[in-house]
UniProtKB/TrEMBL annotation:
InterPro entries: Aquaporin-like, For/NO2_transpt. The keyword Cell cycle does not apply. GO terms for molecular function: formate transmembrane transporter activity. It is a multi-pass membrane protein. The keyword Amino-acid biosynthesis does not apply. The lineage of its organism: Bacteria, Bacillati, Bacillota, Tissierellia, Tissierellales. The chain crosses the membrane at residues 6-27, 34-52, 72-92, 113-132, 144-169, 181-201. This is Putative formate/nitrite transporter. Keywords: Membrane, Transmembrane, Transmembrane helix. Belongs to the FNT transporter (TC 1.A.16) family. GO terms for cellular component: plasma membrane. It is found in: Membrane.
């Protein structure tokens, strides 16, 4: 039952990130859109949903043999949630504009080089895990939420690649093909590497200080 609950929470996380994508694509002002996109991670953190990009950062804080498969399950759940939201949005009057913008976004990713996607994935999840880490560890209440908002705005405005948001864009555009699937895998791997940086550096620093 716990695995089912974890999977359902992963679906909800994917859905909230997708809704962040909807509002981002609905607004012409990129700064306002980036600010509103942060609602997705705000909901994930406060409601304690399971988001792959947030959870994978703590890979080496757990038993890798059991935690990595759990993270992969979360990735699949996030995919399901993002697909559900995309298909529901497609049934509404706002769909044409969202589809058009999603198609342009996905085409940029499909035309990009794999090394570019990988590096942008690294940068993105440094920001996402920084946001999660601030929410978990910042002693100041305002700082917890500023950490989320500012980190997410940075990754959106810089064009960094977030694998769960990209799932939504790809489904919204219905552009699943070999190019976009490979791109999504490369972005995911970049997100993993970027995500583990902050927690791992903290663990190394703690170990060095204790010696």
């Amino acid at each position: 039952m716990k695995k089912l609950a974890d999977f359902l929470y992963a679906i909800m996380a994917g859905a909230f990130i997708a809704m962040g994508g909807v509002v981002f694509l609905s607004l012409n002002n990129k700064i306002v859109g980036a600010f509103m996109f942060s609602l997705g991670l705000f909901a994930v953190c406060t409601l304690k949903y399971n988001l792959f990009t947030g959870k994978v950062g703590y890979l080496f804080n757990n038993d890798v043999k059991t935690y990595l498969p759990w993270c992969l399950m979360v990735w699949v759940g996030n995919l399901v949630g993002s697909i559900i939201v995309a298909e529901l949005v497609r049934l509404t009057r706002v769909a044409p504009g969202i589809i058009e913008k999603s198609t342009k976004l996905v085409q940029v990713k499909a035309d990009d080089s794999l090394i570019s996607l990988f590096v942008l994935g690294i940068f993105c999840n440094i920001m996402v895990v920084h946001a999660v880490d601030q929410y978990l560890n910042n002693p100041h209440e305002i700082g917890k939420y500023l950490g989320i908002i500012m980190s997410i705005m940075v990754f959106i405005l810089c064009g960094f690649e977030h694998c769960i948001a990209d799932m939504f864009y790809i489904q919204m555009a219905r552009m699943w093909n070999s190019q976009t699937i490979i791109a999504l895998i490369v972005i995911t791997l970049g997100n993993v590497l970027g995500g583990i940086l902050i927690p791992t550096m903290r663990n190394i620093n703690t170990k060095l200080k204790s010696e």
